């Protein structure tokens, strides 16, 4: 890693060491890699952010800041990239982590919820029924909320089992109809500064 740091200006690989002198909230958003593969892919790749130790730590800290002092019993992450961020959040909070999965992967009793994802595809989401007891306060985490369909399905599953949605956290919650629906009804946290929100909403 030290050799990579010393040669970062010449290396074609991502810079895992550089931290800007002035760290405004959301500085790590610049670590995300742009789409180079066309319209069938997301317009940004946040997994590059996860490779940067300080970037990931600051991202998680910013996501949790609005929930300081709030009662949270468990963190739930949404299949698949929400597992990464959700597990990191759960580790910081010292809480358990619940995986909300795409249908067909859980070999235990589940509740299922159909939904339409950001690409317009019909899918089904499942959660195990033995992990959520009535009144359990759950922080829902996903990598990104674009149309809101995936997050709304997760909310439906949690509430159907008697759980309470303590909040919703994502790197970005877009100002779409679905994103607004979620933000109007639940305490939310995301990392995009207000001045950059229009650019993220228009995928610029």
UniProtKB/TrEMBL annotation:
<protein>
    <recommendedName>
        <fullName>adenine phosphoribosyltransferase</fullName>
        <ecNumber>2.4.2.7</ecNumber>
    </recommendedName>
</protein>
<keyword id="KW-0660">Purine salvage</keyword>
<dbReference type="GO" id="GO:0006166">
    <property type="term" value="P:purine ribonucleoside salvage"/>
</dbReference>
<feature type="domain" description="Phosphoribosyltransferase">
    <location>
        <begin position="71"/>
        <end position="190"/>
    </location>
</feature>
<dbReference type="InterPro" id="IPR050120">
    <property type="entry name" value="Adenine_PRTase"/>
</dbReference>
<comment type="similarity">
    <text>Belongs to the purine/pyrimidine phosphoribosyltransferase family.</text>
</comment>
<comment type="subunit">
    <text>Homodimer.</text>
</comment>
<dbReference type="InterPro" id="IPR000836">
    <property type="entry name" value="PRTase_dom"/>
</dbReference>
<dbReference type="Pfam" id="PF00156">
    <property type="entry name" value="Pribosyltran"/>
</dbReference>
<dbReference type="GO" id="GO:0003999">
    <property type="term" value="F:adenine phosphoribosyltransferase activity"/>
</dbReference>
<dbReference type="InterPro" id="IPR029057">
    <property type="entry name" value="PRTase-like"/>
</dbReference>
<keyword id="KW-0328">Glycosyltransferase</keyword>
<comment type="pathway">
    <text>Purine metabolism; AMP biosynthesis via salvage pathway; AMP from adenine: step 1/1.</text>
</comment>
<keyword id="KW-0963">Cytoplasm</keyword>
<dbReference type="GO" id="GO:0005737">
    <property type="term" value="C:cytoplasm"/>
</dbReference>
<keyword id="KW-0808">Transferase</keyword>
